[in-house]
Write a structure and sequence with these properties.
Four copies of one chain form a homotetramer. Chain A has helices at 10-21, 41-47, 62-74, 89-100, 117-120, 130-143, 159-187, 194-200, 210-221, 236-248, 253-265, 271-284; strands at residues 2-6, 25-29, 53-56, 80-83, 105-112, 123-127, 151-155. Chain A is α/β, with parallel strands linked by helices and 292 residues long. Chain A folds into two domains: 2-157, 3-Layer(aba) Sandwich (Rossmann fold), CATH 3.40.50; 165-279, N-(1-d-carboxylethyl)-l-norvaline Dehydrogenase, domain 2, CATH 1.10.1040.10. The mean pLDDT of chain A is 96.
């Protein structure tokens, strides 16, 4: 089939390649002319035959909103927009409504795979009407990993991004699990070679997983991670997962702890710990350390 | 080689079978005569030719202590005891010392594998002197999974149980991660079929793992886990992991949250939440629910 | 001064009384004719001389929105609306804008005090323009506790509710602190009479506080809180505090733990713990407890 | 009465003064001759008439053990030792047993009060046999705050330190509660003057407390705590509280979060966050920050 693909960054560029390897025609547009196949969104739309399917793969928020707005102007009734970016799930219904008012369909799709997706395939979670999903199914089939799994029609519009968001929330806590275990092993003097313990865990254990394999790769590059600073960014999905949990009255202690650990790591100094130090000084005369 | 194996329960029985499949001679002893190969520990020791290796696979604590005490009486200098149970790592040094005073070697070995170990192999983490580990290496090779990984000499005596303990701590948080994600998906109405989302995650995602595969199996048995009550036991390793972290000043927020979630699940009613309800009533006149 | 007061429930009714004791004229309106001074909002507005000040003390959300909408129709330029309910802080700017378009001023005011406020006074945190605050200052002075503290002009519109929201977040964690300590004392057998320990803490300790005094009162009513069930409701402020923290990248581990503990207490059974039990069963053959 | 007091540091020195103000005779010993009343422990014991009461106020652990050992040699049957330091509660039974074998009584006493104790009195929680407590009661009465509260016979030997330990655990979470609230108010731009909000909370609110008063004092010294670094030490009691909870299967999410926040604050860089950064880099090619 023919696909328009907007956004050819780290993710989009590799996805174009994988879809093409699947035998489909992809016309890509990016603001960066060096990677773009066409000069404008208008040209991209003009080059597709109807009913057109355009996959949006740009940063969530303003960039996605603007692209969807422009496509709403350029596309025709019966066409379809897929938002494959990291939009917040409750944006999807709004986008779907805006496009539906012009007769244009909408599918949201959460995409997991990172830099490994080109070779291994991308895990896909999508939401939308069955007939809309059917229009883009050949592309889903090209993108997904070989084998039985890796793609799911998760429900109505928004379900794809919601499922991907929860995936990322789970990912936060799994990463935190390995990180905590690693720090404890490094801190205690019981185990001689922590990296070899991690390596051994890759088979036969309850915790064998792709993230563990990656941890071993990371430790092979830098045994004690001395080259790194302990700063971990967070993206929207982790935050939204906790917010969705609060909306639903669901306790998420481990995922939230993982998010907060990242918040703390991003701070040069901890205001709340200044207050603790100040209080200890007030009631106990405990020495405090002055600001650098 | 020849191995004495004490304890033929769920774990020990399968391990005997796997070691035998590896071509070794195993003489097993269990208090239950139906599964035991010999009538007594004394007979077991008598049937082995020296230097003897006896693997202890009984419950941690008193049962292990008693078995090691008895073996200390029965074995001879140059023999070796392996503690493959779930002993606390700081018991190992004590056991090693007691045996060393009689010229008997000691190796501790954390074993992961559960009911799957017989077919897939057991992950092994062991600690002790190199010469002692060498004495039992053929058995380790028979027990471990096929392939490159799954066994590690983690360090001196105690290192094996320490590594296994941390493994279990990581396991707690990984299980909690999936459990939280599952509850959120079930609670929100965004996703139509939560089980299919879990199934799809098995390939191409960041969170693909053996535990995820098991979650899908569990959901295939009972889609919404309606047949279960939300009560999760905990074993010593989770508790010891947190204690080891406290000893080392290491923050373990996700692992500890996972342990506490299990504690809460084991309570018929929550005393601390009674106090919260009582306080709300005191200052706000908020209605409280009476005891059943 | 003259005040219109809308909402004469548990809070509003007592506040009317305290303001009157302060020498002011209060005309109260409530849908319940038994407590209302007037038959309608229209009558209330008609009975006030301009510039009118009307204090809204109704449930946050729809009821507050509707009351503000109606007052927007009934009041005149130069009049003032005070929202003393538990509105979310980011609703305030919207309400202020809607009223400002009609020349009507707006002040938001977080009120703390519960059933004790009538006698002890209400702590007040308010936000809005200085000239608007000045219009209602005499009422603030009547409501606040005797003494130096208990009232603050926290900033622009929304600041009052924001400050009150954070107050409640802090309150959640303080309550949780005492609740956890109490449960631990009750669970361990070290201390013979937990209530007397709590009682003794009321003077000379670092943790002496009004909440501790209330805890002692509660224990005097019911020494082991046997009459209660361990279920703790939560109101909007706790949830909003965590959401505001996430918006600002601020880690709130203790406050969030307190919120999640309440969520858990509200569940008949824990879905996430079902998943943990299911996974333990899958990999370890651990017995699980069937649903009741 | 007559009291021997061993340890005249920040706490002990002020306690000597307060007990003397209460009309009692205190003979103090400290290794520092500038503050000591006698040249040696031997001299101190010699100067007391029997039955002697000696209060030990030295650092927990080795120093306390050594002092108790020496007193065991120097004292006579019928004498009494009070451990007023921060010993771990399960040390008490051991100390009591050692002394009991020589006919010497033992009382453990947790003391709260810090630098304020001299003027305000010290909160006391003590454990031991009734007849032993009676021997030291006059000193307890002199040390405790004026008024009804502030002292409690918490139970048998160990109960005093256990109660004090839990007091400190509660203190950790209360401090954390205020610290989190303060950081959120400072981070968000809703509130203009955070210090004034804190000040106002001192009356009429649910969270009014001595710790809040201290927070206001600290902010009066340094409005944004710019002079401090966000590093908070922890003492044994916080750690032991969590360990006691684990022993009893009691979930302590807020207290433990408070302890872990302190652990994190003590780290120059976070090993676990290095692992998170490494994993993000592995799967997503996310940029990481190199070590300084």
């Amino acid at each position: 089939m023919e696909l328009g693909l907007v956004g050819l960054g780290k993710m989009g560029g590799n996805m174009r390649e994988r879809i093409r390897r699947g035998g489909h025609t992809v016309i890509g547009y990016d603001r960066n002319p060096e990677v773009s196949d066409v000069a404008s969104l208008e040209e991209l739309v003009g080059r597709l035959s109807g009913p057109r399917v355009v996959w949006v793969m740009v940063p969530a928020g303003e960039a996605t909103q603007q692209t969807i707005d422009e496509l709403g102007e350029l596309l025709s009734p019966g066409d379809l927009v897929v938002d494959g970016g990291n939009s917040r799930w409750n944006e999807d219904e709004k986008h779907a409504g805006e496009l539906a008012s012009k007769g244009i369909g909408f599918v949201d799709c959460g995409v997991s795979g990172g830099v490994w997706g080109l070779e291994n395939g991308y895990a896909l979670m999508y939401g939308g009407d069955t007939e809309h999903v059917a229009m883009v199914q050949p592309v889903f089939d090209a993108l997904k990993p070989e084998g039985t799994f890796g793609a799911v029609h998760a429900g109505k519009v928004g379900a794809g991004h919601f499922a991907k968001m929860v995936h990322n929330g789970v990912e936060y806590a799994m990463m935190q699990a390995f990180a905590e275990g690693w720090e404890l092993l490094e801190a205690a003097d019981a185990v001689t070679d922590v990296r070899e313990v991690f390596r051994s865990w890759q088979e036969g254990t309850v915790i064998r997983s792709w993230l563990l394999d990656l941890a071993v790769k990371a430790l092979d590059d830098d045994e004690h991670l001395d080259k790194l600073r302990g700063i971990a960014k967070d993206s929207g999905e982790g935050r939204w997962t906790v917010e969705a949990a609060i909306d639903n009255g669901v306790p998420l202690p481990a995922i939230t702890a993982s998010l907060f650990a990242r918040f703390s790591s991003q701070q040069e100094d901890s205001p709340q710990m200044k207050m603790i130090a100040a209080l200890r000084n007030q009631f106990g005369g405990h020495a405090v350390e002055g600001a650098k």
